[in-house]
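task queued by scheduler; priority normal; single chain, no ligands, no partner chains; default sampling; output format set to structure tokens
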Amino acid sequence: MTGRTEPGRTRRRGAALEDAILDAAARELTESGFAGMTMDKVAARAGTNKNALYRRWPHRLALGTAAYKRLATAAPVPDTGTLRGDALELLRQANRHWSSPLGAVLREFLAAAGGAAEFLASLQEQSGEAAAAPWLTVLGRAVARGEAAPEALHPRAATVAVVLLRNEFVVRGVPSAPDDVLVEIVDEVYLPLVRGRGAAGPASRPPGSSAGPSAP
């Protein structure tokens, strides 16, 4: 060989080739969903061969996940002036995403992975620190306004509402959660939990601690 490339293909290496593959995979996801995305189609669209894909991603699910993360963009953190308003808008943003075509792709991934821990861990923006960041931001504002105690700034407490919403899609299989469900999550679960952290009384004591005299 004299360094020629096959017709329709451009010689690329490293980051340039990886970007081309991810762009091609993202377009396939957008047009065909995960079910219609194949390694052959991605390779053809990227102008490369399947070996280039498999050297970077061991299987279709891994490539699809990487492409999904490229498509997913963070929504702006709301600032309505109240914790309740911010929490509701964050849930509404999440609900719109999970109800969108891109959210449908994500649900395809979850079904294909069958709950595989390595896949779920790879979607850090769905379940890791990045998911907690906007909630910690709105909680930080609430603490500054005096709506919540500093003890409320805990990642697990912060993300309870969005985890409950995710269960509506993953466990119950709904295509979209009605707004009254979002309001119920915020008013009946999230706000009482947040406001209870750091408050005086049994709710703020760790398990096993002495309750002491009962409050009137």
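post-processing summary
- Residues 74 and 145 are 25 Å apart (CA to CA).
- The radius of gyration is 22 Å.
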